[in-house]
């Protein structure tokens, strides 16, 4: 099956590939490009989520270590609990981050009609 | 070519208006050529052209620049805007080409297409053929017209067409093939030499 078109017709279509933009239209579009507010870059969801996860990990670790220390736990106990919290939150981030990246990628395309 | 687009698109996303204008300079004539053939009327094509660049400004933050992706993305925005406009026009004047072009005129839609100012290429070679071609294109279903224009007017690869229309590559090939076949039938009264 040939996907190509009659060469003469194709040549005729190619000749119409460029249509010169009139001065008035060019001026209107350039004015818009120069003056209309540019939409700011989309919310950096995954970066934000990662930042929050790191901050939450640190906060929870410090708070738990302080609680355990004030309750009289030994150094080993505090260390083990710290490792458990860091590992738990770290793994959660590893699982959640790709999902957030996929979600962001899905929003990256302009609407497709038809 | 696409590397330049990539570099400019990255800058434009960061709010660099000069980069945005450079992208406009690189693509404006081709985009208008596509819209002109897609929509059939210069005035409508120019309206949509302006809308497309405003939409580009709004959608840029959501566009992720990758090599060779700017042109399909830009033409996708244009294709969507054309389809929206064609549907609005259809609701306004009716779907048939022989329908009245307006409430206060006996002119038909098809007459308006034929009376359009000829495209630059038609001035040197048969205005009649150019009008028949415009008419034949106007009679194609939107998706086929889109695919034929992207392939044979804009010279896009099937991969680019598939990215522009967001269809699988096989579907893009089928759309181009069917559209080309329909054009051939509608222009069968012209020989290859005349074309």
Structure in words:
- The complex is a heterodimer of chains A (114) and B (195).
- Chain A has 114 residues and is mainly alpha-helical.
- Chain A has a domain at 45-106.
- In chain A, 70% of the residues lie in helices and 0% in strands.
- Chain A is built from four helices and no strands.
- In chain A, helix 3 (45-70) packs antiparallel against helix 4.
- The longest helix of chain A is centred in the last third of the chain and has 32 residues, at 75-106.
- Chain A is elongated and about 85 Å long.
- Chain A starts with 6 loop residues before the first helix and ends in an 8-residue tail after the last helix.
- With 195 residues, chain B is mainly α.
- Chain B is built from ten helices and no strands.
- The radius of gyration of chain B is 18 Å and the shape is globular.
Structure in a nutshell:
Chain A has 114 residues and is mostly helical. Chain A has 4 helices and no strands. The longest helix of chain B has 24 residues, at 70-93.
**Integer-rounded radius of gyration of chain B:** 18 Å
Along the chain, the helix and strand elements of chain B come as: HHHHHHHHHH
Count every helix of chain B, treating DSSP H or I runs of 4 or more residues as helices.
Answer: 10
Number of strands of chain A: 0
Structural category of chain B: mainly alpha
Largest sheet of chain A: none
Strand fraction of chain B equals under 5%
């Amino acid at each position: 099956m040939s996907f190509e078109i009659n060469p003469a017709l194709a040549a005729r279509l190619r000749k119409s590939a460029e249509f010169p933009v009139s001065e008035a239209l060019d001026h209107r579009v350039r004015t818009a490009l120069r003056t209309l507010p540019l939409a700011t870059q989309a919310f950096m969801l995954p970066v934000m989520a990662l930042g929050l996860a790191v901050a939450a990990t640190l906060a929870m670790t410090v708070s738990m270590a302080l609680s355990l220390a004030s309750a009289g736990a030994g150094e080993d106990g505090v260390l083990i609990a710290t490792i458990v919290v860091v590992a738990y939150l770290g793994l959660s981030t590893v699982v959640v981050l790709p999902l957030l990246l996929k979600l962001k990628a899905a929003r990256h395309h302009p609407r497709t009609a038809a | 070519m696409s590397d330049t687009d990539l570099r400019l698109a990255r800058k434009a996303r960061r709010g660099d208006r000069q980069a945005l204008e450079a992208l406009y300079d690189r693509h404006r004539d081709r985009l208008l050529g596509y819209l002109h053939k897609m929509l059939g009327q210069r005035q409508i094509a120019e309206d949509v052209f302006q809308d497309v660049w405003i939409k580009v400004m709004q959608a840029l933050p959501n566009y992720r620049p990758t090599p060779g992706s700017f042109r399909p993305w830009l033409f996708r925005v244009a294709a969507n805007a054309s389809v929206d406009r064609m549907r609005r026009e259809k609701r306004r004047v009716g779907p048939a080409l022989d329908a009245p072009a307006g409430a206060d005129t006996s002119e038909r839609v098809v007459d308006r297409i034929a009376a359009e100012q000829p495209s630059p290429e038609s001035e040197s070679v048969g205005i009649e053929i150019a009008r028949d071609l415009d008419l034949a294109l106007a009679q194609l279903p939107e998706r086929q017209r889109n695919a034929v224009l992207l392939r044979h007017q804009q010279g896009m690869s099937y991969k680019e067409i598939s990215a522009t229309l967001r269809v699988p590559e096989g579907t893009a090939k089928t759309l181009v093939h069917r559209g080309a076949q329909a054009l051939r039938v509608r222009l069968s009264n012209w020989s290859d030499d005349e074309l």
